[in-house]
Write a structure and sequence with these properties.
alpha/beta; Rossmann fold; Serine Threonine Protein Phosphatase 5, Tetratricopeptide repeat; seven-stranded mixed β-sheet; two-stranded antiparallel ribbon; 22 helices; 9 strands
Length: 482
């Protein structure tokens, strides 16, 4: 129950908000997962309100510890208001204090304190989100119906397990995601109607895919999880996004993929990850302007996320706007010299800008901090564009000798053979990519442009689900590019 509250009448509309990391009043690092869990869950609840821009977790966590002023935070995140709060955890009881501050005059517009059983913590976040919207935000409405056959309430032990699994998820490594998936599945085995675990399991599957997991290993299971989640709670945006991913993967059913992804964004318009993923899909389908709108929106929702900014740069690269892409990656490198993804993509972009020597050098410099499976393929591609076919061919022939986990994807290898002009090898590797359910977006890379009007290549594109309309839009883009 709420035990005290204050409210103020807003004199202006709040259109953007950031939930700052809640303070752990236990002063115990082992309890940080509770405060972080409360923060992330409240972000998720507020994200479901249409008309309100809510900053994603990645961009607010750097402010943990409260060492920067509200004005500095507002400048970095471009928001009208922030929510601050604290969490005190004692046994099975939880006390949460929260207040909303308008940045313009640093005035507290709403504040409330709650005491609940620990197992009610997720339901409490929905109450707080509703209270904030009713008290000070007149221009928003919740995007879902609120009707669900599932539950967000569990016993204290299950809730602790769930929040610890979320902590694993937020570490975002191959190992931590795998452990989080196992823990969410264990929780659902005991509590099959606990919808938050379905939501996070769906996110974890998509994160595993983003890290390069073989979709064939869990495609059927992922579809089943998404369908069960929607049957229990038809408002789970993450489940619809997963269904969209599943629909596009292997079956290359882009109609289903687009429909489900749009549904996910209706339910959670503030998901930076959904906007980013949808932007990639729309790029492949030749809807270039809309794709860039979504990648820009992803950055607006997660302005401090390096990966969101890099993803926007990649979309620019894909639509042949190399100069703009180069500026994005150069800015990222200048601000974050250790972010090797920006270094790699700047190198790849420069290769397309006839700066091959410099591009290869950048990729090699990134490899010094840890080699990626695709690095040698990009270097070989760059060498081929410099008419150093012998060196490129030597690298390409060595791919088969590398362990599977270190070998470039089939489409990455196809890019090298395309630069070397070996049509049969290109078509062979594209066939393998489709059989292995590998991401098809790379097939729209500039290296394949000389093959666009090749009948057999067009048939390959058609097998990936890219019909004549898609191919026509790409041909028009390529012909109009400098």
């Amino acid at each position: 129950m709420g035990i005290w509250s204050t409210r103020d009448t807003p004199s202006e509309v709040i259109r953007s908000i950031a939930v700052l990391p809640f303070e752990n009043l236990n002063r115990d690092d082992d309890r940080d997962y509770v405060a972080d869990g409360v923060t992330v869950t409240l972000i998720g609840e507020l994200s479901r309100y249409e008309g309100l821009r809510v900053i994603s977790r990645t961009s607010i966590m750097p402010f943990k510890g409260g060492v920067r002023s509200l004005q500095e935070i507002a400048a970095a995140l471009d928001v009208d208001a922030v929510i601050e709060g604290s969490v005190l955890h004692a046994g099975d009881a939880l006390r949460i204090d929260s207040h909303l501050i308008r940045i313009r005059d640093e005035r507290t517009m709403w504040a409330e304190s709650y005491e609940r059983d620990f197992g009610d913590v997720l339901a409490l976040q929905r109450d707080i989100a509703r209270a904030v919207s009713e008290a000070v935000i007149s221009n928003v409405r919740r995007t879902d119906s609120g009707e669900s056959a599932g539950t967000t309430v569990a016993d204290a032990t299950t809730m602790q397990s769930y929040l610890r699994a979320n902590q694993l998820f937020d570490q975002r490594t191959d190992t931590s995601i795998d452990r989080a998936i196992r823990e969410y599945k264990r929780i659902l085995g005991v509590h099959p109607s606990f919808t938050p675990a379905y939501q996070k399991l769906a996110e974890a599957y998509m994160m595993a895919l983003a890290f390069g997991a073989d979709p064939r290993e869990f495609l059927i299971e992922a579809r089943s999880v998404a369908e069960r989640a929607i049957a229990i709670d038809p408002n789970l945006a993450e489940a619809y996004l997963l269904l969209g991913v599943v629909g596009a993967a292997c079956s290359f059913d882009w109609t289903t993929g687009v429909r489900e992804m749009r549904r996910a964004l209706v339910l959670n318009p503030n998901s930076s990850f959904s906007h980013r993923y949808f932007g990639a899909v729309l790029t492949g389908l030749g809807h270039f302007d809309e794709a860039l709108e979504h990648s820009k929106r992803a950055v607006e929702l997660d302005p401090l996320s390096l990966s969101a900014r890099a993803a926007h740069g990649i979309r620019l690269y894909q639509v042949r706007r190399f100069s703009e892409a180069s500026k994005v990656f150069q800015a990222l490198r200048a601000e974050h010299p250790s972010y090797q993804q920006a270094t790699r993509w700047l190198g790849r972009t420069w290769i397309e800008m006839q700066r091959g020597e410099e591009g290869i050098e950048l990729i090699r410099s990134a490899m010094e901090h840890g080699e990626r499976r695709s690095d040698l393929a990009w270097i070989a591609h760059g060498l081929a564009t410099l008419n150093r076919q012998g060196e490129a061919l030597a690298i390409a022939r060595g791919f088969s000798e590398r362990p599977h986990t270190q070998r470039p994807s089939a489409l990455q290898e196809a890019r090298v053979w395309a630069a070397l002009g070996d049509t049969e090898a290109v078509l062979r590797e594209i066939d393998l990519a489709r059989e292995r359910c590998q991401s098809s977006n790379a097939i729209w890379g500039p290296a394949f442009d000389p093959y666009r009007e090749n009948r057999r290549f067009a048939e390959q594109l058609d097998a990936f689900g890219y019909d004549e309309g898609v191919q026509s839009r790409w041909l028009e883009l390529i012909r109009s590019s400098p």
